[in-house]
Amino acid sequence: MELASQKKEISFKGRGTSVCVAFEGAILPGISDVLRELRDAGSMVTGHQIVFDFKKLQVPRNWLLDLLRDVIFPMNLSVSLWNAEEPSTKENLASLGFKVDGSERPMVTQGTLKIVSIPLRGGQALQHDGDVLMLGDLHHGAEINATGSIIVLGAIQGQVHAGCNGDNSASVITLSYQTNQLRIGSMISNAMEPGASPWWGKPVRIVVEGGVFVASDISWEK
After folding, report:
1. 79 beta partners
2. Are strands 159-162 and 143-146 parallel, antiparallel or unpaired?
3. How many domains does the chain have?
4. Rg of the chain over CA atoms, in angstroms?
5. Distance of alpha carbon 150 from alpha carbon 163, whole angstroms
6. pLDDT tens for residues 15-63?
7. 173 in Cβ contact with 204 (< 8 Å)
8. Which terminus of the chain is less hemmed in, N or C, by CB atoms within 10 Å?
9. Which domain covers residue 83, as residue numbers?
10. Which of 109, 111, 110, 93 lies closest to 101 in space, CA to CA?
């Protein structure tokens, strides 16, 4: 009797000049399982543009950020597109600024990404031509200026200027908004007393739409 082989959770398929990493299972795998599968794939994925396809899976925001931190960045993968059929997964991808269904600007441009693995403290400043991902807090008196978007996986207490070359399509993401002012492109938010902003202490993604700042809640439990 021939035994049916168990269907792999992740498959790899050529897609033009890209490689599609498709999630075939009914349950979202753990990050360590994804890392193992991608490492086992070796040269099939490294050095190529990657398209992640989650199909009908529900994928929470914290899982996506863990994927960035623990898999994509350590392996130096270049992701050109994210696909999903499930509406909540599409919403989570879009809320984090990932390039979905041909959207114009990806949140993270791997080729110009700067990863900051330690907090920046008062008096420290970072200037970068591209996107910035900080794995920690931006403390009072510290500053980040980036021509691309800025993700802070911690609190923003200092000053940030995303799209500092005038790019109003850039975004700012933080797990805790605690600054009295920020800049995106040519736009400067109104200075407020600490705690006065309606976004204060919240995990938010901030963009410019119609000439005004718009913040969306990115709480993991949503």
Report:
1. 50
2. parallel
3. 2
4. 19
5. 9
6. 667 889 999 888 999 999 999 999 998 888 887 888 899 999 999 988 9
7. yes
8. N
9. 9-94
10. 93
